[in-house]
Structure formats: C-alpha cells, structure tokens
Design goal:
By secondary structure, the protein is α/β, with parallel strands linked by helices. It has two domains: about 120 residues, Response regulator (Rossmann fold, 3-Layer(aba) Sandwich); about 110 residues, Winged helix-like DNA-binding domain superfamily/Winged helix DNA-binding domain (Arc Repressor Mutant, subunit A). It has eight helices and twelve strands. It has a five-stranded parallel sheet, sandwiched between helices. Strand 6 and strand 7 form a beta hairpin. Helix 6 crosses helix 7 and helix 6 crosses helix 8. It is elongated, with a radius of gyration of 18 Å.
Length: about 240
C-alpha cells in the first residue's frame, strides 16, 4: 500500500462515513467522504481517488447509476456496498463495472481486506498472469489485447474500454485458450479468492465480455460455455 492511497467513501449514513473514514485512516489511507452523488462528483472534480467505496442505496442518483457513470469516465476501481438480501443489486453492480462488492452489515476489517485486494489487483496482476518476457499483444478472432496498455482493439480498429476485472478475466481466458476453466478457477486466477456457493460474478463478467466482443450469447464463438464445467476461449490465439 502506498502512503498516498486515497479512498473515497460514498454513503448517506453519517455514522458509517465516520466509522469507515476513521478506520481506513488509522490503517494508513487518505480518506474523503461523500453523502450522495452530487458530493461525489464535486470531490472527483478536484481529485482522483485510488478507489471508491460506493453504497447502493443513496438519495437522488443511486449507487448503481453512479457506478455506471463513474465507469464510463474512468477506470477507478469500485467496491459496492449492498444490502445482505439484495443479490440482484450485487449482480447489477458487477454489470455496471464494479470490481467487488460487500454486503451490509460487515466488519470494517473485511472492507479493509477487500480494499487492499482490489488495489493490489488493479496495480499488479497475480504471479500466474504476469508476463515473463515483457508485455505482449494477443490476437484472436480479429481482436487484439495489449498487455502493456490493457487495451482491447476490435477488428475494425476501434478501441473497446475494459474495466480492470474484465481485463483480468479476458487475459486469463486468452492465456489459457483451448482449456476449460471452472468458475472457481477463474475467480481464483483473477481475484485470488475462492467463490462462495452463490457467487455469480464470473458469469456476469463473462456476459459483459461477450457483449464487448460482439459474441452472440445464444451461439457464442469466442467465449463458449461448457455446461456444468466452465468456460473456454475457443478461438485460436496468436502472439504478436
């Protein structure tokens, strides 16, 4: 963790803002807080945090819409805070581009662990994904994935934006092209943790990647599903 790591906590509960702000500050982070979307936008206009902790239930523009708004403008990682019984909020949050989620109520130590994990993932790939011979470009089905810039280029030359989670997942699939990877394996390779029994984050990210790769979900040709087994990048991959 860098001493300059800046966390923005967005929650309309004043006590939660105070609690998380104090706890994260005691653990070496610089913390800003916002009570709603307007305050978040104001703070983002003056500084760029390293990570945003964003509650789903906010007055005015809700956290899901704010996450989509934030993702359309930057690659700042986002951890969503959701109600424990609102599974759909978690799924939609991931669809909007969130990097992780945490259900309320939670222990601040758990949030701290998630913050460290997300920051670590966004700054350095896990050892199993690191290139031993420097950055490379991969070409598959006409698409090009650049590991130096983390950019995905379409066959027609258009750059397609990827969130950090989407990039890590696509890189994992590309580097294991032709191999079937289970959801647990993909979560372990891209996030460094085991899946919970009802964790649908990989399925959501696969769906988002298919949309960006223009891969028809009904008859996918690039990222294919093997029922009860997992996913496979079915295209031939060339290293440039």
């Amino acid at each position: 963790m860098s001493s300059t790591d800046h966390i923005l906590v967005v929650d309309d509960d004043r006590e939660i803002r105070r609690l998380l702000g104090d706890y994260l500050a005691r653990n070496g982070y610089r913390v800003s807080t916002a009570a709603d979307g307007n305050e978040m936008r104001h703070l983002l206009g003056h500084s760029k945090p390293d990570l945003v902790v964003l509650d789903v239930m906010l007055p005015g523009t809700d956290g899901l819409e704010l996450c989509r708004e934030l993702r359309s403008q930057s690659a700042i990682p986002v951890i969503m805070l959701t109600a424990r019984d609102e599974e759909m909020d978690r799924v939609i949050g991931l669809e909007m581009g969130a990097d992780d989620y945490l259900a309320k109520p939670f222990n601040p130590r758990e949030l701290l662990a998630r913050v460290k994990s997300v920051l670590r993932r966004t700054r350095a790939l896990p050892p199993n994904l690191r290139q031993t011979q420097g950055a490379v470009r991969y070409r598959f089905a006409g698409w090009t994935l650049d590991t130096a810039s983390h950019q995905l280029t379409a066959p027609d030359g258009v750059l397609v934006a990827l969130s950090g989670a989407e990039y890590r997942l696509l890189l994992t699939l590309v580097e294991h092209a032709g191999a079937v990877l289970t959801r647990d394996q993909l979560l372990d390779l891209t996030r460094g943790r085991e899946a919970s029994p009802f964790d649908r984050s990989i399925d959501v990210q696969i769906s988002r990647l298919r949309q960006k790769l223009r891969d028809d979900a009904r008859q996918p040709r690039i990222i294919c599903t093997l029922r009860s087994e997992g996913y496979i990048l079915a295209s031939e991959v060339e290293t440039l």
